Structure formats: structure tokens, C-alpha cells
């Protein structure tokens, strides 16, 4: 599996426990508008992603990330060279 | 054309819905007269105050009031100027000296409010390439300090030492780091594990700032806060505090032993670009701070009040924010906003004022009735308070 696809699959795994409505998740799925996450859910999710990928996603970066695709791209950059 | 106020529609609807149910507006209380630190007249009715931050009951202290009156006579009603221009009077230097003596620290810088102290210190010392690592439940003034600056912001789960440690270890070792913690978290009244947190922060080469707004005067042998209680006061770099709680007036401060601390007076915008505190305010603050140094008896009585109220409320069947009383704040957890507002109103009708706290100010979307005790609440008053909670709780169905 190419790297990006692998990253997407790992992100999907982390999304699922919080995917209360059971919607189909793609790159275009938005955390607030589609998954309807509030700030506390986002916190839990980000903490899990940070642990899974051993990275830091600052609040400054979070402000730029609206959908799953953007998160996958950000993680690709953060883990490059690891 | 869109109305800029449209964004507030959901909140307006929530508020209208609540008020239509006939409940008194919990955010519109007016105190017509204030008789003492623990009693006021609200809607013509004698009301016990259990929702102020007047922890040490200094607002009516005769020495404090005399100092304020004297300063009004001697120095006038206000300074009309910035601390760095015409707004530093002898009283401002005296209150900074009182703080240095109170905390046994080298430097003290007084701001016009506690909010501005956090805004100023945090936004100024953490620059663009630095990191601020903060507890997710931090006070609004800490978040606003982060927003005013341009550092990288890294939150961690409330009071989770391991989460803090992990994040510190993932950051670039050479980057500047500021860990921001609070001694007492004001919503639930719980303490931070500062001993462990300061240790992992120091091991990662971070500077540590602790906001002790809700502990000053009360917690620790000399009332210096949770940093003193847990034996880490010498390891923290900055303590932020306020005059609007135990000190009993208004104003904010930062104390530190950092050798270059004084430069902040020239570069900290919320310090420079606002008027300094009125002479009467700094005079009352200085007098109050000096009296707080020798208030061990009042501290002991406040602990007694806190323990008794906590045990009594628990016995009545209320769910509380902490297992044990940890501070002068005792949070009663309500099932939802409607019940919380009804209970709040029932207590007010009984003659008791507490704070109703709701999201987003509260963690985990909780609705809380926040009780904050005063060292001047008498034993009889605590008994009265418990009686009122029992009656209001039964009337609203919160307890059986």
C-alpha cells in the first residue's frame, strides 16, 4: 500500500470510535460539519492521532485542518523523514 | 447584506428558551446592598453569598478600607496614565513590594486586572517559534494570552502528567517552551499535580508559569498557593495572580525570580497600553496582601468550612466535582442546564447566591452550581447553607 493510503487507513481507524452516525469517511469528510464533532471530541481524537503517529498537532495547525484529507496530508508531512 | 450579529443566534435562542420557561435570568443578578463579605441584599432579600471569590473576606476589613480612603484623599481618584509614563505612583511601587515580600521573590509586576496579567505575560514571553504547552481546561485569559501572541499552542488532557510529558518529549529539544498550569482549576475546584508536572517540565527544559488566582491567601503555609503546598515554588518561573479574589479588590500580577524580568515592563503591551490602577485600589491591595501574610487562623477556618460543606452536600445526595474538598470551591454537578437554572433560582429564593456555570466555561459540557466559600462564613451560616440546599434540592427534584 502506498504511504498516503496507509496513513489514511490509520486515520480511519482512529475516526471510527467517534463516528457516531456511521457515515462513510473519505478525504472530503469534514470533522465539524459532517462528523458533527464538538471541541471535546476533537481533543480526544487529536490526542489519539498524536499518540498513534508520535507527532504533535498544534492548535495552530488544527485551525487549518477541516477534513480528513487535510489531516492525512498534514500527517504525511509531519512523519516525513521519521 | 448579512447582520454581523447573526452568529449569536444560537445563543440568543438558548437564552430566550430558558427565560421563557419562567426562570430568573441567572446572569442578571443585581446586588442592591452589600452588608459584609458574606451577605448582600438581592431583590430586597437578605442573601448569603456563596458565589464570590472573596475567599479571605478582605473587602470590608477596616484597615483595608482606611488605606483606600486615605489614598483617595492623598492621590485622587485615578492616575489617567500608563505605568510606564505618568501612571506609577508610590502606591504602585508599594503594592509590588508587598507582593515581593508575600511570595519572597525578586520581582513583581502589577497589571490592571488578572486577565491582563495572563494576556500580557503569556503573549509577550512566548514568541513565534516557541511552544506553549497548556492544560486543556485552562482559564479563558490563558487561551486569550495564547491567541494574542503567535507561539505554537499544544494542549494536553486536564491534569494528565503523562500526556504533558509525552508532548514535551515530542517537541524539538532546542525550541523555547512555556508550560502553563493553574494551581486550582476554578470550575471543579480541583488541584493540579504540580509536583509531578513541574518535574517533567523542567526535565524537558521548559519554563513553567502557574496561575494561582484561586489559591492565593488560602492554600500553602503562607498562602502562596499550590506551588507552596506541593513544595515546588522555587522551581516555577512565573506565578500569576489577581487582586480580585482573596485580596479583595481588582488588579493582576506576575511574580518571578528571572534576572531579566524587569524588561517586560517595556515590551508587554497589556501592561504598557492601558491605564494603571487607581491609587485607592493599590493602597487597599497592599494593605490586604500584608494582612494575608499573617492569616493562618482564617486559613484554618476556611478549610473547616470547605470540609463541612463538601461532606454535608455529599450527605444530602448531591454529586460533587471532587471526591474530597481540595480548595475553597465546591462544584455541585447538575444533570442539565434547565435543572441547573431551576436549582439556582430555588436557592436564590431560599436566600443563597451561588454561581451557575455552563459550557463553554465548564469542562465536559457540564452545568455546575459553583459554591465558593469565605473565611468569614460562620459555622451557623454553613449550617444555613446546607439547609437551603436540602430544601431547594428537594423542591427541584435534584435530590430525594
Helix-strand makeup class of chain A? mainly alpha
CATH architecture of the largest domain in chain B: 3-Layer(aba) Sandwich
Overall domain count of chain B: 2
Query: Beta-strand level of the residues of chain A, as a percent range?
Result: under 5%
- Structural class of chain B comes to alpha/beta
Largest interchain contact: A-B, 13 and 17 residues
In the CATH hierarchy, what is the superfamily of the largest domain in chain B?
A: Type I PLP-dependent aspartate aminotransferase-like (Major domain)
**Topology order of chain A in helix (H) and strand (E) letters:** HHHH
Helix proportion of residues of chain B, in percent?
25-40%
Describe the 3D structure.
Chain A is mainly alpha-helical. Chain A has 4 helices and no strands. The model of chain A has no long low-confidence stretch (mean pLDDT 92). In chain B, a hairpin with a 2-residue loop joins strand 2 and strand 3. Chain B is an alpha/beta fold and 400 residues long. Chain B folds into 2 domains: 27-56 and 296-395, Aspartate Aminotransferase, domain 1; 62-292, 3-Layer(aba) Sandwich (Aspartate Aminotransferase, domain 2). In chain B, helix 2 runs antiparallel to helix 11 (279-292). The interface between A and B is medium-sized, with 13 and 17 residues.
Essential attributes:
heterodimer; A: 82 residues; mainly alpha; Non-ribosomal Peptide Synthetase Peptidyl Carrier Protein, Chain A; 4 helices; B: alpha/beta; Aspartate Aminotransferase, domain 1; 2 domains; 7-stranded mixed beta sheet; 4-stranded mixed beta sheet; 14 helices; globular
Amino acid at each position: 500500500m502506498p504511504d498516503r493510503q496507509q496513513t489514511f487507513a490509520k486515520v480511519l481507524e482512529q475516526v471510527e470510535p467517534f463516528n457516531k452516525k456511521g457515515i462513510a469517511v473519505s478525504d472530503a469528510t469534514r470533522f465539524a460539519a459532517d462528523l458533527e464533532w464538538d471541541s471535546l471530541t476533537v481533543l480526544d481524537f487529536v490526542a489519539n492521532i498524536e499518540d498513534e503517529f508520535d507527532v504533535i498537532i498544534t492548535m495552530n495547525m488544527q485551525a487549518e485542518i477541516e477534513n480528513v484529507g487535510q489531516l492525512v496530508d498534514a500527517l504525511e508531512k509531519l512523519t516525513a523523514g521519521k | 447584506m448579512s447582520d454581523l450579529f447573526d452568529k449569536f443566534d444560537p445563543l440568543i435562542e438558548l437564552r430566550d428558551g430558558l427565560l421563557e420557561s419562567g426562570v430568573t435570568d441567572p446572569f442578571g443578578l443585581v446586588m442592591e446592598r452589600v452588608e459584609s463579605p458574606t451577605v448582600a441584599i438581592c431583590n430586597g432579600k437578605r442573601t448569603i453569598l456563596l458565589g464570590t471569590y472573596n475567599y479571605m473576606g478582605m473587602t470590608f476589613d477596616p484597615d483595608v478600607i482606611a488605606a483606600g480612603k486615605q489614598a483617595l484623599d492623598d492621590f485622587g481618584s485615578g492616575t489617567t496614565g500608563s505605568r510606564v509614563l505618568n501612571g506609577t505612583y508610590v502606591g504602585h511601587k508599594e503594592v509590588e513590594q508587598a507582593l515581593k515580600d508575600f511570595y519572597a521573590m525578586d520581582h513583581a509586576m502589577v497589571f490592571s486586572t488578572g486577565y491582563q496579567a495572563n494576556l500580557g505575560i503569556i503573549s509577550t514571553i512566548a514568541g513565534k517559534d516557541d511552544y506553549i504547552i497548556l492544560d486543556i481546561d485552562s482559564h479563558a485569559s490563558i487561551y486569550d494570552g495564547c491567541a494574542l501572541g503567535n507561539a505554537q499552542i499544544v494542549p494536553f488532557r486536564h491534569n494528565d502528567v503523562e500526556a504533558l510529558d509525552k508532548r514535551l518529549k515530542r517537541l524539538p529539544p532546542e525550541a523555547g517552551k512555556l508550560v502553563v498550569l493553574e494551581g486550582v482549576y476554578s470550575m471543579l475546584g480541583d488541584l493540579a499535580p504540580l509536583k509531578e508536572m513541574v518535574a517533567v517540565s523542567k526535565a524537558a527544559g521548559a519554563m513553567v508559569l502557574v496561575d494561582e488566582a484561586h489559591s492565593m491567601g488560602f492554600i500553602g503555609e503562607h498562602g502562596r498557593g499550590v506551588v507552596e503546598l506541593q513544595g515546588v515554588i522555587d522551581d516555577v518561573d512565573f506565578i500569576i495572580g489577581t487582586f480580585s479574589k482573596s485580596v479583595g479588590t481588582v488588579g493582576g500580577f506576575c511574580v518571578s525570580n528571572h534576572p531579566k524580568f524587569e524588561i517586560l515592563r517595556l515590551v508587554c503591551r497589556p501592561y504598557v497600553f492601558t491605564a494603571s490602577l487607581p491609587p485607592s485600589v493599590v493602597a487597599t491591595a497592599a494593605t490586604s496582601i500584608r494582612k494575608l501574610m499573617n492569616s493562618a487562623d482564617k486559613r484554618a477556618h476556611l478549610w473547616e468550612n470547605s470540609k463541612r460543606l463538601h461532606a454535608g452536600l455529599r450527605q444530602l445526595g448531591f454529586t460533587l466535582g471532587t471526591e474530597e474538598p481540595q480548595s475553597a470551591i465546591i462544584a455541585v454537578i447538575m444533570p442539565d442546564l434547565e435543572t441547573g437554572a431551576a436549582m439556582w433560582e430555588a436557592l436564590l429564593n431560599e436566600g443563597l447566591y451561588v454561581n451557575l456555570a455552563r459550557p463553554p466555561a465548564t469542562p465536559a459540557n457540564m452545568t455546575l452550581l459553583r459554591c465558593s466559600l469565605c473565611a468569614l462564613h460562620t459555622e451557623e451560616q454553613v449550617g444555613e447553607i446546607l439547609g437551603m440546599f436540602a430544601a431547594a434540592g428537594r423542591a427541584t427534584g435534584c435530590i430525594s
